[in-house]
Design brief:
Length: 181
Amino acid sequence: LFCAGRKGGHKGRARQYTSPEEIDAQLQAEKQKAREEEEQEEGSEGATGDPKKEKKSLDSDESDEDDEDYQQKRKGVEGLIDIENPNRVIQTTKKVTQLDLDGPKELSRREREEIEKQKAKERYMKMHLAGKTEQAKADLARLAIIRKQREEAARKKEEERKAKDEAAMAGKRLQSLSLNK
């Protein structure tokens, strides 16, 4: 059975089988622990007179028992492992009457950033129109310089036009004086 050049695999080596008697003993121990826990719970709750326990003993087809069965029957290994993940969101169903449509709606990060950006732009435009921003001050200074240059250019044109008019008038006077002679 041993092949030359191959070593035996590790899968069949150290298998240990539990005997049926040991399995029965383990099951009996688990049932005994469950009974003791129930007795302790009944002892502590029996003193207070919990009405839910009394109802359960009276009604065998109670809806609470169905809920317990549903909670115990979990898929896969969920029943074996207790998960306590603080990030896990448990889905809860809400009725239509419980929905709060008038309350403040939770905005996403992008929506919040967009609103903040629009508000900042509006504030900047108000400040800009009031002339309080650096850019507005620079624009106003540039406009003042341009106004002065335009005023000077208009004044020079006016002076040149007056000078031409005076020269033309002087030329006409000379012609009229020369014609009169």
